[in-house]
């Protein structure tokens, strides 16, 4: 597997796990088979021109787009099965941690990955519990004829999603604790990020210490006191093309959109704060 650390802003990083080898059908777990079957069903509904299936897909995609990109990143990491654990300890599976060294120094790379894998664990655990509580409550909706019990299926999906995020984080923690990651600074990623950082530095009064820039949720960047967007949608498409990973495009597009929207809302709130203080 290859783990990519892709800074979206000066405080947030997208994690993406690429599986180099796809398991044959006979070796896939029940969860993997169910996931593939659900994806095919959803794809079939998307092709419908009208009807309730099409409406479900439209509203469903609207909700899926708003699921935090950090959760999608954790879900890209496969759960740690007993067999996979043994193979990884024996060194049969090689895992590479790929990152732009100009932004994430090698000495910080593993800690960045560990933070992305563990920081949201309490959130996913609590929301998993609430989804499990809500599922029996929504079960009576199944009595409504024709239309399926959408609230129940949504809660079931969200419960599975939080479980996968927790499982992905557990796998990351295992790899970090046992030093099973091969650090691979990427010249390709540097070729994308270095010009962006240069332009960002040129727009400031002083040149930032790029070697100390660590895109973490709690990072106070030396580039700016405020969170600054690093990747645009155009940069994201260039990055996908450079890495030659087409499936990464939707993940980057979603992450950039979410971070850009969050930064915009934060700026709006900060601009309103002085006015509110004056009014009081």
Description:
The protein has 280 residues and is α/β, with parallel strands linked by helices. It is 59% helix and 8% strand. The protein has helices at 30-46, 52-65, 69-75, 82-89, 106-118, 121-138, 150-177, 187-202, 233-243, 248-279; strands spanning 2-7, 13-18, 95-99, 181-185. The chain has a four-stranded mixed sheet with strand order 2-1-3-4, with helices on both faces. A hairpin with a 5-residue loop joins strand 1 (2-7) and strand 2 (13-18). The N and C termini lie far apart (56 Å). Mean pLDDT is 80; it is low at 206-224.
What attributes characterize this protein structure?
single chain; 280 residues; alpha/beta; four-stranded mixed beta sheet; 4 strands; globular
Taking the alpha carbons of the first and last residues, their distance comes to 56 Å
Major sheet characteristics: 4 strands, mixed
Work out the oligomeric state of the chains in this entry: single chain
* Classification by helices and strands: alpha/beta
**Count of helix runs:** 10
Globally, the shape reads globular
Quick synopsis:
59% of the residues lie in helices and 8% in strands. The protein has helices at 30-46, 52-65, 69-75, 82-89, 106-118, 121-138, 150-177, 187-202, 233-243, 248-279, and strands spanning 2-7, 13-18, 95-99, 181-185.
